[in-house]
Amino acid sequence: MTANFTLFFAFYVLTPLLPLYLSEHFGATKDVIGLVLSGYTITALLFRPFSGYVVDTFPRKTVLMVSFGAFAIFFAGYLAASTLLLFMIVRTLHGGPFGALTVANSTVAIDVLPSSRRTEGIGYYGLSNNLAMALAPTIGIFIYRYSHSFELLFWLALVVACAGWIVDSTVSLPEREAVRDKSKLSFDRFFLVRGWLLGLNMVAFGFSFGVLSNYLAIYGKEVMGITGGTGAYFMLCSVGLILSRLQGGMALRQGRVTHNAGEGMVISLIGYTLFILVPTWWGYYGSALLIGLGNGHMWPAFQNMTINVASNNQRGTANSTILISWDIGMGLGILVGGVIAEFMGYAAAFWTVVLVNGLGVACFFLATKAFFLKRNLNETVR
After folding, report:
1. Burial environment of residue 242 by CB neighbours within 10 A (0 to 12, 13 to 18, 19 or more)
2. Which of 27, 69, 196, 306 has the most CB within a 10 Å radius?
3. From CA 262, how far away is CA 131, in angstroms rounded?
C-alpha cells in the first residue's frame, strides 16, 4: 500500500499542473496539450495487456522491481526535456513502465493478502492510490503556488518514486513456479474476455476523471475565477475517499461489491453534475467531496468484481484488464476533452463528462451487474 501510494503520488503531483507547464513553458494550445498528455495514457494502455501476461508468467517480484525502477528514472527525463517535442517523447514513453508497474504492484498485493480478507484488503489497497490521487495534486499546487518552480515538482516526483522502489524491494513473496504452459497464446492471456463488460463500463468512469483531473486547474482559473482553489478541491476529494472507507467498509467485508459499485457511481454522477450545473464555490467544492466519496466506493468494487470472474492464474490479466479500461477512458477524456475545450469551451467539455458518466451508470444497472453475477467464481462475493 505504501509503495502504491508513492507511485500514484509521483504521477498525480504533476497531473493538474502539466497543462499549465505546457502552456506557459512551451506556449502549447489546448488541443496540443491534450495530444501531448494523452500519449502517456496511450502507451500505458499498449503495455497493459502484455504486463498482465508477463506478471502471470514470470517472477512477479522481478517484474515489479524492473518496472518500478524504469518508472522512477523517467522523471529525470522531464528535467532534461528542453523542447516540446522532447517533452512529448519522454512523457509518451513514460506511460510504458507506469502501465507495467500498476499491474505488477496490484497483483503482488493480491498475492500477499490472506484469501479470507481479500475483498476487504483490495478495498484498502485501492484507498492508497485514491488518497494519492487526492493529496498529491494538493501538495503539488501548493508547492507551485509558492515556488513557481516546475523543476522542483519534477525533482519531488523523482525522489518519491525512488522511495517507492525501495519500499517495494522489502516485500516478501512466497516462491511460485514459473508458468510452463506451452499452449498457443490466445487473446484471453492478455485481456480477460470473461470481464469485457466490466471493462467497458470502467471506460466511462475513466473518461470522466481524465477530463476533471487534467483540466480542473485551467477551468477553475479561466471560467470560474478560482486561482487558488484546486489544491483545496483535491483535499476535499481525499476527505470523501476516507469517508468512503468508513461508509463502505462493512459492505466490502460482507462481500457486497455490487452494492458498493452502484452506490459509488451514483454519488459520483451527482458530484460531476453539481460541478458543472452549479458554477459557484459551493458547487465547486461540494462536487469534490461527492466525487471522492463515489470513486472510493466504485474503484475497489470494480477491481474485486474483475478479479472474481478470473481464475487464480489470471490475476495479473484481471488487474491489467481493469487498468486498461481505466486508461482508455482517461486517454479519451484527456484527448476529447482538450478538443472540445478548444472549439466549444470548457463548460461543454464538462457537460460531456456528465453525459458519459450517466451512460456508465445506466450500463451498470441495466447490464453489468447481471453480467458479473452470472460469471462470478467466488460465492462469498455478490
Report:
1. middle
2. 306
3. 21
- Say how far apart CA 168 and CA 64 lie, in whole Å: 8
Residues 221/214, Cβ–Cβ less than 8 Å: no
Which residues are CB-neighbours of 133 under 8 A, at least 6 positions away?
8, 12, 213, 234, 237, 241
In the chain, how long is the greatest CA-to-CA distance? 60
pLDDT digits (tens, 9 = 90+) for 268-302: 999 999 999 988 888 999 999 999 999 888 888 89
Q: Residues near 127 by Cβ (< 8 Å), separated by ≥ 6?
A: 1, 241, 242, 244, 245, 296, 300
pLDDT tens sequence across 177-201:
555 554 555 566 677 888 899 999 9
CA separation for the pair 10, 26 (Å, rounded): 22
Distance in angstroms (rounded) separating the CA atoms of residues 378 and 310? 10
pTM: 0.75
Q: Is the CB of residue 357 less than 8 Å from the CB of residue 226?
A: no
